[in-house]
């Protein structure tokens, strides 16, 4: 009987991914997404009119308005893998390098961390520019971590009530501190919960289900590697997320294409061995009408600076030379310098703070930009994102 290798190995990969992934529950909202072809999905936000007076003579009166708005979103992550397992690899490694073992390795150590990380990033990026701030900074310590977490939970419940079931993803470092809280022993419950068919340990505090997540999967922004080396890494200005509180109905992790194929040697022209290929086309979205169901806690950290970019050659000179930072800047990112400097050093903002660009001049070239300042004044340089939020900042005093 012929074996459908692609189906067999896809099942193996699915099992590994579901067992190891900490964000599997975030796929629950995918049913609210409508596929519209190509890279676009449509997500519906619905609102209705409020109650009105009933008339004993006119009854219910005119029909009220139901507003439905379908917002288009573009899937942002089209990722793949492609490995040739040479015929001699299996023999010379005692059958350790096989299609099955390679797929298990990819699933556990590449796909799972990247999916978890991208979903954490997408949740934060969805709410970072809201008019009403839905994130804060906190450096976890045993004495205050439980109180701080509960305060964040209460902040969400104050907006959405207790009928909305809240969950939390928590960085392992923050969870370790929380676990050591002397206040916690009477409040934490541990239970197993079926998430996408996999039994998962879930910790419950204040009615909120907490799933611990490795720290490296809880950053605010990641850079994806597109070349053969593959992989991903936190961006240089990325902040550590302590936890994010959310409701399943507020997020939708979606996959449009998820396929693994194994072409046995002799069935393809790419070499003497089995060809293992896979593609994952996905994204994670936050419903616009449900941002109130989310709060993100970032670990207190000094904003990232610049290395070798600001220089001075005299008491009236500050020079900004961006070079590759400008050439390779992220889409929407801009750099500004404090024109004319200031008598005292400017206070560094927190990462993602809205930045007041008054008195700052935009830099439009990678080459050196000279700023003439008053004797001994301080220059300053800032990188802002597409929302004009600070990502990197540095200051330097003019000196001979």
Describe the SSE topology:
Elements: H1 5-20, E1 33-35, E2 40-48, E3 66-74, E4 77-86, H2 87-92, H3 99-127, E5 135-137, H4 145-160, E6 166-171, H5 172-179, E7 189-195, E8 198-205, E9 208-213, E10 222-224, E11 232-234, E12 241-247, E13 251-263, E14 273-286, E15 295-298, E16 310-314, E17 317-320, H6 324-327, E18 334-338, E19 360-363, E20 369-372, E21 378-384, E22 390-397
Parallel strand pairs: 5-15, 6-9
Antiparallel strand pairs: 1-2, 2-3, 4-14, 6-12, 7-8, 8-9, 10-11, 12-15, 13-14, 16-17, 17-20, 18-19, 18-21, 21-22
Helix pairs in contact: 1-3
Provide keyphrases for this structure.
6 helices; seven-stranded mixed sheet; single chain; alpha+beta; 400 residues; four-stranded antiparallel sheet
Please report the total strand number as a whole number: 22
Shape: globular
Query: Roughly how many Å is the radius of gyration?
Result: 26 Å
Class inferred from helices and paired strands: alpha+beta
Between the first and last Cα atoms, what is the distance in angstroms? 82 Å
Residues in β-strands, percent: 35-45%
User: How would you describe the oligomerization state of the chains in this entry?
Assistant: single chain
Sheet with the most strands, sense and barrel status:
7 strands, mixed
Name the poorly predicted regions. Answer: none
* Helix and strand sequence: HEEEEHHEHEHEEEEEEEEEEEHEEEEE
Q: What number of domains?
A: 2
Strand order of the largest sheet: 5-15-12-6-9-8-7
Q: What's the helical proportion of residues?
A: 10-25%
Note the total helix count: 6
Mean pLDDT: 88
